[in-house]
Amino acid sequence: MKLELRGITKTFGSLVANDHIDLTVEAGEIHCLLGENGAGKSTLMNVLYGLYQADGGEILLDDVVQHFAGPGDAMRAGIGMVHQHFMLIPVFTVAENVMLGHEQTRFGGRLDLSSARAKVREISDRFGFDVDPDARVEDLPVGAQQRVEIIKALSRDARVLVFDEPTAVLTPQETDELMAIMQQLKASGTSIVFITHKLREVREVADRITVIRLGKVVGEAAPTASNAELASLMVGRAVELTVQKELPTLGDQALVVEGLTVIDPTGQLVVNDVSFDVRHGEVLAVAGVQGNGQTELTEALLGLQPHVRGSIRLDGAELLGRSVRGILDAGVGFVPEDRKEDGLVGEFTIAENLMLDRADGPPFVRGGSVQQAALAEFAEQKVAEFDVRTPSIETKVGRLSGGNQQKVVLARELSRDLRLFVAAQPTRGVDVGSIEFIHKRIIETRDTGVPVIVVSTELDEVTALADRIMVMYRGKVVGIVPGDTSRDVLGLMMAGETASIEGAAA
Fold first, then answer.
1. How far is 426 from 428, CA to CA, in rounded Å?
2. Angle at CA 146, nearest 5°, toward 144 and 152?
3. DSSP H helix total and E strand total for the chain
């Protein structure tokens, strides 16, 4: 089925999310929609899927104009969507999830689960998915859950299939499996729209590439285009994609964590007897698929988790049991994984956000009053040093782009005298240009002798920054390996394989 979008425009108040976008996807083609987070890719696909109503433009399938009042209309027309965050009911079986919303009944109104099971088996056998229709979704690995989403779409005769950032929660091996599935779907005649911001995946699977920046189509490219060419299209300038770093000059042990255990509010063991150390002048990257205890680990280091056992010693001093303020005062800098919720106050100005860690005394507060001149001088200096793109230090931080918001967090944390720097998902939702800048500052911090912990689900980021890599799976440490360990080995470790650690270096 041929898909054509003509002049699609979608606004949210004064924000123009899609600005007269044209896109054509031929039958049996994998068309990649490339752009940074916030570029307008997902908005465009939500218009296609009927979740949003366009303010202008039209959708055509096989040259026939379509009018979708909602997702049901889009599905009936042959459009399916595999969302980044799976739309599955964990306690339902695969067959129950597949039939949800399209229930068939037998005599007496009983659900016809047998036909749903048969449909799952038929699609699973056709594409080699190996999915049990009677398995509960919550018991399946993430890669298998994604295959269930694909089966759902195909069971409704989807001939155009949209994948919205589909690899965000997958290991490298699961990503490779998904790429193979896309090729199978293409061979069967399915048209695929593949939304991503990961350049390596684009070049591996796409037939054609359309690049969106700030809601507009800024160019098309062939998969033979280099990463540098694609990156420059995405951000509008040349970008250095390789992290430049020398071999580390390691000092003594700085942070020593022993037997760290975290229990969440439901009583679940989310960090299980974790031990590791970080030396002065070293980057330890924590890798793993999202949800394997990394978030709780970083929160425990900062005193944000209430139920923690074990020991956390920084330069010989025990941090466990101290307040968050006490840990920050001990010289720990922290970039949280959700900057909007935990790193910034959106209605505060840039200047006000830059003093959040030091609002209880000099140099910014004396006698209970904010020293405006000192704060303004500091804020102007940091805005320039960290290249924060803003009309004024008095701009509310919530009005900045994601990359500029992250730079404000970095500026605040790296402007203190640090003895440890912890950065969780430091480049999540920022553009390629900001990633380049953030990576450079992390390495500069390491090179001053400060120990650094980087937690990231982006394997390219992990291998670019790390001197050593600690892989977590289901709350435990699978292993700690050198920073040049191969992606294949790291991917197996992220799936819980411990036998592959020996000889892990590439």
1. 6
2. 105
3. 16, 22
Report the 10 Å Cβ neighbour count for 467. 20
Q: In what order do the strands lie in the sheet with 56-61?
A: 15-25, 3-12, 56-61, 64-66
Q: 506 falls in which pLDDT band (50, 70, 90)?
A: very low
Cα dihedral across residues 30, 35, 38, 44: positive or negative: negative
d(CA 397, CA 352) in angstroms, rounded, equals: 9
Q: What local confidence, expressed as pLDDT, does residue 501 receive?
A: 54
Closest CA to 293 of 84, 117, 438, 457: 457
**pLDDT greater than 60 at residue 503:** no
How far is residue 491's CA from residue 506's CA, in Å, rounded to a whole number?
Answer: 13
Residue 391: burial class (beta carbons within 10 Å; 0-12, 13-18, 19+): exposed
Q: What is the pLDDT of residues 268-286, one digit of tens each?
A: 899 999 999 999 999 999 9
Q: Which residues pair with 422 in a beta bridge?
A: 334, 453
**What are the φ and ψ backbone dihedral angles of 379, each rounded to 5 degrees?**
-65, -45
* Amino acid at residue number 314: L
Helices (H), 268-415: 294-301, 324-329, 350-354, 372-385, 402-414
Cβ 176 vs Cβ 131: under 8 Å? no
DSSP state of 64: E
Q: In the 3-class helix/strand/coil scheme, how is 112-168 assigned residue by residue?
A: CHHHHHHHHHHHHHHHCCCCCCCCEHHHCCHHHHHHHHHHHHHHCCCCEEEEECCCC
| Burial tier of 270 (Cβ tally within 10 Å: 0-12, 13-18, 19+) | buried
pLDDT, average across residues 197-208: 87
Q: Report in angstroms the alpha-carbon separations of 339 from 81, 135, 336.
A: 28, 37, 6
Nearest by Cα to 208 from 25, 46, 45: 25
Q: Is 16 helix (H, G, I), strand (E, B) or coil?
A: strand
The answer to whether 451 and 312 are in contact (CB under 8 A) is no
Asked if residue 393 lies in contact with residue 349, where contact means CB atoms within 8 angstroms, the answer is: yes
User: Six-digit token pair at 464?
Assistant: 């670019």
User: 18-22, 153-157, 360-364 — which is least confidently predicted?
Assistant: 360-364
Domain architecture of the chain: domains with CATH = 3-235 (3.40.50.300), 252-495 (3.40.50.300)
Bond prior to 90 in cis (omega within 30° of 0): no
